[in-house]
Amino acid sequence: xxxxxxxAHGSRRKQSNDEVVALAEKLKNSCGEQYDIVKSAFLxxxxxxIPEGIEQCISDGATSIIVLPYFLNSGRHxxxxxxxxxxxxxxxxxNIDISLAPHLGASxxxxxxxxxxxxxxx
Length: 122
Hints:
4 helices, alpha/beta, four-stranded parallel β-sheet, globular
C-alpha cells in the first residue's frame, strides 16, 4: 500500500496546524487513486510528529511512504532535519520504502499558482 505523508513545520497556534490536517484530507479526496493512505505530520510544535506519522502509515498497512514537505524554501529543515528523521525511520523499518519528495516551493507549478492567486485577489 502506498501512503502520502504531508509534513509541515508545526505551530503553537492550533488553527494553523488544523489547516494542514484539513489540507491532508483534501489531498486524500483528490489523490485516492494514487495513494491508499494520506496523513499529515509535523516537524515540531504540534501533534503528530513525523516519526508518529510514519508509524501511523505503517500501522494502516503502508509498505511505501512518500514524505511531502509542505515548505516553501529550501532551508535547514528541508535539507537536514526532515531527511535525518526519515533516515532514522528507515533504519527502524528497513522493509518499508520511505522516500522524500521535493519541497513545495521547488515545484514548477509554483509560478502558475502565484500568478493565479494574484489574479484572483480582491
